[in-house]
Amino acid sequence: MYSEDYELAKPNAASLMQSLRAFGYDTATAVADLIDNSITAQASRIFIQFEWNDGNPWISIADDGFGMSESELFEAMKTGSKNPLDVRNADDLGRFGLGLKTASFSQCKRLTVASKKKDDQLYVRCWDLDVVSVKNDWILLKKASDCALKIIQDYFAAESSGTLVIWEKIDRIIPGTHVDDEEYQNAFLSFAKAVKDHISLVFSSYMYGTRKIQFYLNGMLVQMWDPFMSDNTYTTRMPGEILYVNGREVRIKSFILPHQSKISPEEYDQGAGLHGWTAQQGFYVYRNNRLIVAGDWLIPGLEKQEQYRLARIRVDIGNETDSEWNIDVRKSVAVPPISIQKELKRIAVAAQRESSKIYRHRGKKLARSVKKEQQFVWHQNVRNGKLGYEINRNHPIIRSLLQTDTKGEIKQLLSLIEETIPVPMIISDYSEKSKEMLNPFEGKTTDAFDGMIKVLYDMYRSNGCSPNEAIENIANTEPYIYSPEKVSLFCEREGINNG
Questions:
Q1: What is the pTM of this model?
Q2: Pairing status of strand 311-317 against strand 282-287
């Protein structure tokens, strides 16, 4: 129908479908987005399969949920199938009605979905981006490829209801065909491992309790990773709190994980997660029990520091406040509403303080026991009646380097550093931005300390010091003077009894 007041501006099918590929998913977050649909469909078992298929790999995500009718499947395959402004069920993990398509197209060019309700027949629909590009139209196929059809038949031979999603032509993971390419096959398997690790964290809250869901990857049950070590008797549970956003509850639980001395090496490695203890500290935001953000302090001014590494805070929100939390399409970003940022910061600071107390405890014990002369890196000196600074040649690491300096190059480097200290810049920065100046080793990981500690320890031991004497000497050497807990942590990792 023609109108002088408006005209229809229908999107170009080929262009829009290609644009949907650029939402920034990786394989793990893409699979997670499809798992959300399975959970919303009340699945009790979810199966993820990575098949190399002789160099023509495919990936499938299947569930035993309540499935879809033909009309429901058609709606699900449409782009923007749900309005993000619509009221959703409390347990709905969806958001924009785009996840199935955007997540899938970010990884593959052919998306096939087969679904079956109980006591109904099986329905299949398929998007093939090559077909859409050639026809430049919204061609939704009713038939699966021969490969996908075999997968569908095998799965639904044993399931009375559920949904099966198949990714073929996975060009964003494995471009082209690589029949005998072992390097690509190993890369494909590494994607599978990343998916397993992601599932174990993001969906850990669904792996226990009354509505327990089992997740399988290539036939193996995925085990949960509990970032809060909530079953450990040495984990400190701080009092929970409830905040409100537009009248909706935000539940907060703070956990201070055990000091390394209280747990086994296996528990310590497990507690570190994928990214290490320091990186895992902070808030964990769950939307309907599904993890959105893992290990981030979220609030401006709060930064990750070594002494806060034991603090992890669970934040539970519903799907009614998605806009207030700025939940993105991939469900991997959440920004706390301004109305509760002050309270979240108060809770975070309390958890950081408690973490610092536990983390520093053994370091303070070491500091009290050490009374030797301290060794600093820099000394003041006077030259031509003026004050300057020089590097302490008796600092054990520097002394050790100088002993091997047969060409005098290290000595020249030290002199160059001393003569080019930007004193005016330092004075200006410190007077104007003292709170923004870094402390020694601030922001560095424990690994940065361990390497240097190990050098010092081996040096003192080779010079005839006992283990305890070596540790005491290190604790009196800059920068460890300021952080004796680093030395205690090194002792625990190396099995050195300094007590």
A1: 0.71
A2: parallel
